[in-house]
Hints:
By secondary structure, the chain is of the alpha/beta class. It has helices at 10-15, 34-42, 78-84, 101-105, 131-137, 140-149, 156-167, 175-182, 191-207, 209-223, 237-249, 280-285; strands at 24-27, 48-52, 68-71, 90-96, 224-234, 268-270, 293-299. The chain has 2 domains: 10-101 and 209-299, 3-Layer(aba) Sandwich (Rossmann fold), CATH 3.40.50.150; 109-207, DNA polymerase, domain 1 (Orthogonal Bundle).
Amino acid sequence: MAAYHTPALLQASIEGLNISPGGVYVDVTFGGGGHSREILNRLGEDGRLIAFDQDEDAIKNRIDDQRFIFARANFRFLKNFIRYHDITAVDGVLADLGVSSHHFDDAARGFSFRFEGELDMRMNRNAAMKASDILNEYSEERLSDIFYTYGELRNARKIASSVVAYRSSKTIVETKDLLSILEPFAYRDREKKILAQAFQALRIEVNGEMNALREMLIQALQVLKPGGRISVISYHSLEDRLVKNFFRTGNFEGRLIKDFYGNIETPFILINRKVIVPSGEEQFQNPRSRSAKLRIAEKR
């Protein structure tokens, strides 16, 4: 499991769920199963845990436990799946939105700029569109929007223009093609950051991550019991902003809605008003946890 992925903020995220031994919980991002195993450790004989992961590689990490149900599906199908198992409400939902170390370290998956390989980036390898398809087929304007919105790259327009110029003479297939395109924009002092932002932007688009996150959060609110909790670990500002706004206001724009008396109407009670981040020791032990941010909320 540790070789597949070392979970960030493990204890804080699980403790935030305030687990009841007989409760029903959902881990919507199973991966290597680190968070799921910790939840099961705190459940009694009557407790249940449902875990989601759309990646076929995660199946081999399934846990042999009668309290455990594995769903090979995107977490955007949370509500439908628990209904299929005759569960009407749950006591807690956990989401670790980061990409597993397994994905970054597998050159064949194309998630990392560190390795040569095909520009794939699909979490679900049955999905139709790869990152290379986006680079070869999207318009320059659409590419610019992706790099700017999902990668927060200031040179998004110039990068998109370079993509279009490159593909006019050579089909973009591998990570080395994208690195050649990005080379003029990857300034020496910020090279890794810029490359990571560009790869992040493509990954988010390939997997429809932002829309899936919105759908999951809405459904989590619908299936949580009053008093049930949700723990979400995010890794970049786009995710964190959505989670923060939804927990504070019940909508993704962060729009405050007040009742007749001026009281803010929100479906959640914030368990931590200040975002939780990994300790220095955890960041040293697990460098990929450095950007992790944990928010916890309880349904009213």
